[in-house]
Amino acid sequence: MLRPNIVRQLTRIGFLNTINKQMICGSKRLYQDNHQQTYDESEFSHKNDDDNIEQLPMYDGHILLSPIQRTLLSVGSALAALNDPYRDDAVATFGETTGHYALRQMYTEMLKHPEGQRIIRDQPRIHSTTIDLEALGQLPPNTFGYNYYDFLRINKITPDSRKQVRFVDDPELAYVCQRYREVHDLVHCILSMPTNMLGEVLVKWVEAIQTGLPLCWFGGLFGAVKLNAKARQVYLNQGLPWALQCGHQAKKFMCIYYEERFEQDFEDLRKELNIPKPPKIGKIRSHV
Q1: Would you say 188 is a known binding-site residue?
Q2: pTM for the complete prediction?
Q3: Does the annotation flag 200 for ligand binding?
Q4: Where, by residue number, does Zn(2+) bind (predicted)?
Q5: pLDDT tens string for the chain (288 positions)?
Q6: Which of 18, 51, 114, 160 holds its CA 20 to 30 A away from the CA of 250?
Q7: Which of 241, 178, 159 is nearest to 206 (CA)?
Q8: Chain mean position to CA 103
Q9: Helix, coil or strand: residue 8
């Protein structure tokens, strides 16, 4: 059974109150609300329901959850993400606690693809310590690598900001989840989608069709609620039809060894991946 203090903490979170609280804010905290109240993540980690048996982590940073704990984290993180779609901690937690079957399918598909198979074998990471971003900035402007560098610069983002996977109970699937997370900005770049709310929602639709991850379906379906009237019109008339077409006809983005494609011509790569011409939405203020 869950400890009484855990029950009290989860009761305080509640379905309605969760919307206004922060969830999972550090490796030793579960979530922190607006009054700086903390929830100890150790209450959830490495314990089974009878609270007696210690479980060993399957990989560095892994936290084992019981079915009840996983359900509670899934619901709490979903509500937190609904309230603030830019809460990367809540989004990451929801993706990890709900994605097992989709990750298994993604893993199987990658093993059947030549590039995907090598990705699984090599397990490359996308980080400033593994990719020389400044060198990408010195490539010709028509290359994929330069366009990725420029995308990061314009949007003031870094590949180092991606959360480490913790709640996936399989080392191979944990890597697939990490890879999905780390190529997200590369997918944004190759789809020519900005990082505003409209761009994020459209990328989520493409990813949902290609990966089947509940996180992506969730983001595509509910993210549009956060769009303002003008952005919603563009979304319905141009963006969504394009995203659905792209998701179905483009080659699987998880099976692309992006690190080997940086010197490739950007437009040639887009043609190879069968990506339809995207709508121009970069300057649209899309958030409500």
Answers
A1: yes
A2: 0.80
A3: yes
A4: 184-185, 188, 200
A5: 444 343 343 333 343 333 333 333 333 333 333 333 333 444 434 444 444 345 788 999 999 999 999 999 999 999 999 888 889 999 999 999 999 999 999 999 999 999 999 999 999 999 999 999 999 999 999 999 999 999 999 999 999 999 999 999 999 999 999 999 999 999 999 999 999 999 999 999 999 999 999 999 999 999 999 899 999 999 999 999 999 999 999 999 999 999 999 999 999 999 999 999 999 886 655 555
A6: 160
A7: 241
A8: 12
A9: helix
CB 257 within 8 A of CB 179: no
For 215-221, the CB contacts below 8 A with 24+ separation are 215/91, 215/94, 215/95, 215/98, 215/99, 218/78, 218/81, 218/94, 219/81, 219/85, 219/91
Q: Which two tokens stand for residue 50?
A: 């009878």
Determine the residue type at 200: E
207 marked as binding residue = no
